[in-house]
Design goal:
alpha+beta; Nuclear Transport Factor 2, Chain: A; about 45% helix; single chain
Length: about 150
């Protein structure tokens, strides 16, 4: 029985180790291109100017989004104030987007801590790989400063 428990523990540890190694390999694959893009694009989003979103959001997403909704979204997010600093982007996961297997594109998601003039926020950025660069596929700001 003792040998069986040792075997189970070893298999469990190998599985966990494999998961973390795989995640590290994925993160390192994208970090050289995605992280600099995040440092470039997050200040543009945090300018709260809806006109700049046209340049950074994936074209398919822009076609599906009502411009008036973007104006309301950016007005609401502007309650955070000016971006003062941002932390190091942290890789979360890789996925694919698109319903046609031949046209699927890679989407990588990062979390970034941001400090704004009216509070801090946890920012989720999903980036659609577009050739050798990226376009923003999704973003989300979580902050107590955005509460009622």
């Amino acid at each position: 029985m003792k040998t069986f428990l040792v075997y189970i523990v070893v298999v469990f540890c190998c599985g966990i180790g494999t998961f973390f190694i795989y995640r590290h390999i994925q993160a390192s694959h994208f970090s050289s291109t995605a992280v600099p893009y995040i440092y470039e694009v997050l200040p543009k989003i945090a300018s709260w100017n809806p006109d700049l979103l046209d340049q950074i959001i994936a074209p398919d997403i822009m076609r599906q989004t009502d411009p008036a909704d973007l104006v309301r979204l950016m007005a609401s997010l502007s309650r955070l104030g000016a971006l003062e600093s941002m932390g190091v982007p942290s890789f979360r996961h890789k996925a694919t987007a698109g319903s046609d297997p031949e046209r699927e594109k890679v989407v990588v998601t990062y979390l970034v801590e941001g400090v704004f003039s009216r509070g801090s926020a946890t920012i989720t950025l999903s980036l659609l790989q577009d050739g050798s660069s990226y376009r923003v596929y999704h973003f989300n700001f979580q902050s107590e400063a955005l509460g009622p």
